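Quick start: read one record
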Amino acid sequence: MPLTLFHNNGDRTFTDVSARSGLDKMIGRGLGVVAIDFNDDGWPDLFVARDASPNLLAYHKRDGTFEDAALDAEIAYNANAMRRLGWG
């Protein structure tokens, strides 16, 4: 299942920006999401806890798009190459 991201239009409506942001390419069931600026660049990144696929760290590229940085952050797999899973 692809991830979905909605942009708040500020007028009580939302726009689906999943494809434009690249999150629709990050397939997997998310159980919990935390917005955090993990690299202190002032842009919100997203940590997605998953239980059927490795955890995801969606790094904000400062242009409205995201890329998965979970491997580099060592939150996708442990030292035994087993998925790191979360429940939210």
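The radius of gyration is 13 Å.
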